[in-house]
Amino acid sequence: MLAVNTTVLSKSFLALLLVTGVAIALIISPAFATSLNPCPSEMVMIPGGTFTMGSDNSGYIEELSAQEVRVSSFCIDKYEITNSQFAEFVKATGYVTVAERPLSKEQFPDLPDEQRLPGSLVFAIVQPGAKQLSWWHWQTGANWRHPLGKESAIAHQDKYPVVHIAYEDAVAYAQWAGKSLPTEAQWEYAARGGLNGATYAWGDQYSEKKANTWQGIFPFFNTKKDGYASIAPVGSFLPNGYGLYDMTGNVWELTSDWFMPGHNHKTHSVNPTGPEQSFDPNKPSEQALHVIKGGSYLCAPNYCSRFRPAARESQAPDTGTTHIGFRLVKNLTTERIKNEV
């Protein structure tokens, strides 16, 4: 009787399956492929599920209390929106960002004309003993094309995240792209990468080299152990469990939710969209504030520490800075998600 080498047979059978599989893949119709992955190019499909939103252990009152929340499946950008992507939008539409417009005389009647020139907020390292927030200064001529002022430029920075983006700028881009800003729940769920309850997007231990954050003593000295003193090109660090890049650090990211301390109003909710109005006790004079997530290259263990999925901060809709950008989502059709919730 002829002896059969089962190891060789198994390997041959596996090879046949692989070859056959490749052949099948080559003849799959585009429509069928789309049904398997409904997300546009450079977006990731996030499967719907339940997760714990917020944190009871961070020490930040605005993250209390942690609540169980459910979100439906959705698509989200793999990367933060880049300079090249935003430039394409501006070329197609002629859009002018908030930072490129002069301050309104109606809104700021007491300012002289020279103080109403277009500009934005720019970060600069300061010396020990400097006053709180003195590292931020208004820079005339600063905008997405000129991040540090009119003498700066974004040549050779196509893959860097676009900054100096106000909320209405992000919304305008989203409408043009046929997408939308993520809700805070969508953003946080995606940022966790499947690690529900973990402190960071990669686990429970902080790492200086897993994201673009500040190393050293903020705002005086940055050791640059992560390789960057400022913004990094998108995708410079390893992705999270869902294949998303820079959900930690690099630039803060805008969401569609109004800001309100805590999550108690979201208890056992499905696809929460945030409160109907905003309030931040740390900024009582500002009545319109949106949630931003993820922290930035300026977040350090000694200051901010918001390079965590649960972390959140408020941001005025009419102000851009050198460390705020965005990414977008595309919600799936009702037919696709009707059996998930």
Structural class: alpha+beta
Which strand order spans the largest sheet, edge to edge or round the barrel? Answer: 11-10-9-12
Q: Catalogue the unreliable spans.
A: 1-34
Q: Note the gap between the termini.
A: 59 Å
Number of continuous helical runs = 6
Sheet with the most strands?
4 strands, mixed
Computed Rg: 23 Å
- Topology as a string of helices (H) and strands (E): HHEEEEHEEHHEEEEEEEH
Instruction: Kindly state the percentage of residues in helix.
Output: 10-25%
Q: Estimate what percentage of residues fall within beta strands.
A: 5-15%
Look at the structure and give the mean pLDDT: 88
Strand tally: 13
Shape: globular
Describe this structure in words.
This protein is α+β, with helices and mostly antiparallel strands and 341 residues long. It contains 6 helices and 13 strands. It has helices at residues 6-27, 30-36, 83-93, 167-177, 184-192, 334-337; strands at 43-46, 49-53, 67-71, 74-77, 119-123, 136-140, 216-217, 221-222, 252-258, 290-293, 313-315, 324-325, 329-331. It has a 4-stranded mixed sheet with strand order 11-10-9-12. The N and C termini lie far apart (59 Å). The relative contact order is 0.19.
